[in-house]
Amino acid sequence: MAKYIERYQKRRLISSYFSVALSIGLVLFLLGVFGLLVLNTKKLADHFKEQITISVFLKDSAKPSEIEQLQKSLLLAEHTKSASYISKEDAADQFSEDIGENFQEFLGYNPLKNAIDVKLKANFVTPTQVAEIADNLATKSYVEEVSYDKPLLSLLNDNVRRISFWILVASGIFTLIAVLLINSSIRLSIYSKRFIIKTMQMVGATKKFIRRPFIWTNIKLGMVGALLALLALGGFLFYINDTFPELNLFEDAVMLVSLFAGIFLLGIIISYISTYFATQRFLNVRTNDLYY
């Protein structure tokens, strides 16, 4: 009978520890996902900004040497990410493919122009800077027209600022919630041992001596939970990187290492602080109050 009770208590203890570690791991994983989102907000915004295209349409009279010189000068410019020459024939083939019929047979000629599609680096994708670049290109004698999507550009910049702000706010709120959830899990674990704490105190054990095993146990649980969170976060990171390779999530190794180290340390720190104050509460409470 005694062995059965002992095994039952061990199972309950292991179940309690597993529950705390899993709770910590889940909360830290979600916190890590938000951390990734915050750290990659600029990268995501830059990716969308760099999809904005300035189309430089060239006159039919433009010489090949002028076109080549313009393309080279654009590629050398600090604001250019890419500059691709698209002949009127290639543009016609693409347009015919998009609409599903050969429009040249209907019109009898190709109305499209030779063009250079320019994509800018994200730091230069603002309404003012794009307008300046477009106006400068339009001054060249062999340029027919310079076109880009002005409404989309303005909308993109406004939304990037708005989304970045709300992501920071949401991350701050979620961090607070994460701390409170981990603290609650540890406090419940300590609550179930409140009579043991008070018994140790009544037989003369010091507060430091009583706190030490509880703190060390929950720090280890915090470490286990953090490791579970990091494993899940690593899997999530690989999945997102495979799905959206253009984001290059593994490009900044220092940022990722810092994030993973921060999550691991956060698991330890929150576990330590929560355990300290939870045990302190029951050390200071009167014996009669332990029943309430």
SSE pattern: HHEHEHHEHEHHHH
Into which percentage range does the β-strand content fall?
A: 5-15%
Count of beta strands: 4
Helix coverage percent of residues?
Answer: over 70%
Sequence of strands across the biggest β-sheet: 2-3-1-4
Mean of all residue-level pLDDT scores: 80
Detail the poorly predicted runs.
none
Query: How many DSSP helices?
Result: 10
Main β-sheet description: 4 strands, antiparallel
- Terminal CA distance: 31 Å
Structural class: alpha+beta
Shape: rod-shaped
Describe this entry's structure for a reader.
The protein starts with a helix and ends in an 8-residue tail after the last helix. The longest helix is centred in the middle third of the chain and has 42 residues, at 150-191. It has ten helices and four strands, in the order ααβαβααβαβαααα. The chain has two domains: 2-45 and 157-291, no CATH class; 53-148, Alpha-Beta Plaits (2-Layer Sandwich). The chain has helices spanning 2-39, 41-49, 64-76, 88-99, 103-107, 127-138, 150-191, 194-202, 207-243, 253-284, and strands spanning 53-58, 80-86, 115-120, 143-147.
Please render the helix and strand layout as text:
Elements: H1 2-39, H2 41-49, E1 53-58, H3 64-76, E2 80-86, H4 88-99, H5 103-107, E3 115-120, H6 127-138, E4 143-147, H7 150-191, H8 194-202, H9 207-243, H10 253-284
Antiparallel strand pairs: 1-3, 1-4, 2-3
